[in-house]
Design goal:
This protein has 485 residues and is mostly helical. It is built from 15 helices and 6 strands. A hairpin with a 2-residue loop joins strand 4 and strand 5. It is found in: Membrane.
Amino acid sequence: MRLHFSFPLVCLLALYIRSFSAFYLPGLAPVSFCDKKEKADEDCQTDIQLFVNRLDSVESVLPYEYDVFDFCKDDKELRPSENLGQVLFGERIESSPYKQDNTIKWASRWDYILVSMPHTNIQWFSIMNSLVIVLFLSGMVAMIMLRTLHKDIARYNQVDQEDAQEESGWKQVHGDVFRPPRKGMLLSVFLGQGTQIFIMTFITLFLACLGFLSPANRGALMTCAVVLWVLLGTPAGYVSARLYKTFGGEKWKTNVLLTALLCPGIVFADFFLMNLILWGEGSSAAIPFGTLVAILALWFGISVPLTFVGAYFGFKKPAIEQPVRTNQIPRQIPEQSFFTKPIPGIVMGGILPFGCIFIQLFFILNSIWSHQMYYMFGFLFLVFIILLITCSEATILLCYFHLCAEDYHWWWRSFLTSGFTAVYLFIYAVHYFFSKLQIIGMASTILYFGYTMIMVLIFFLFTGTIGFFACFWFVNKIYSVVKVD
């Protein structure tokens, strides 16, 4: 009897065509196996070779090669080629001296892994929890848009402008609301990098949902993310340059250099320090020197030039036109209540987005640190969309409240409000370390928090960018429909 190794996406035309040829898109390429007596007539394999990747421990985040112990060595050792994602995760693929149990049915080969996976009911609970938060925020935003904001615009557009000027509210700061922010260079750089991360994440998760980045194809997810990040330097440079020009900046060379080097440089420096620890510990997760050189070549040879190309087109474009003029003299901001001050608003703004993701975050941390297989990309993509909506709506709500309090410093606040979700991510990671893991040893602890800081920085740029552009759209929208003398 012949078996065909393939993923569960089967062409439906097979039901109608007796003899057909097809090609395989998602996951891994199929391999045909048959009995030894059929070997002479068929192009198939008779033995199922078992490969191993690494040795893990619940007390350490340091993986080691499978044959680090003498009793696991294979006399006829084979080392198939590894992709970039496998190298970054420390998976050194080797052949095993043992053979796979052929008595296990092919349809049941994943059972031993799926038994340890969380039940989908928990996932649906997570989705329902997130949807409740989204519905709450959507109701608040709808109330503001359809009732409060509509009444404000109708009142501000009255013929009797003298009475309207006596009113307090968001219209009174129309001459200052588009005043360029302080440290606009840094904000534009963060937004350019955040745009790059957002597009990379969206495409990666979308491909994972379609099955192209299957858990069976180890390292494919990381490889795809790295390649996409390298190729998306153009939108990062364009967004950063266009916004920096809108802020009135003129140091375009500094802007494009910071966009190309600042945040990636921080990530690479952290990653390199972690790699030094792995080298010192003799772990298989230590990246070879040649791979580090290849990553640097991708960064400086492809990503940086593409960032320059994007920045060139961004600076060639005119600055984004604002719907109202900016006054020469800044308006004095009145005394703010506790809840409309910057820090309390920023702290509160990250709570609801984090509430949408914390259950899914638990499974992701389990897959990274507790050696569990993650395969629920459909749920993850849905939570990703919910996170976008939640960050946008929470930031718009707080932005409206601050403008009504006549505080027009919304540029940085919109970025930090949703970006503060990353702080809650870090707090949860600390809680996860002490409550769920059994890690011992200084090296493993440093590695855990070192890699966590990379995750926090990426998440900070990602969520902050979502909040900023949502607020930017909202502010432009409301001030474009109100009459200003």
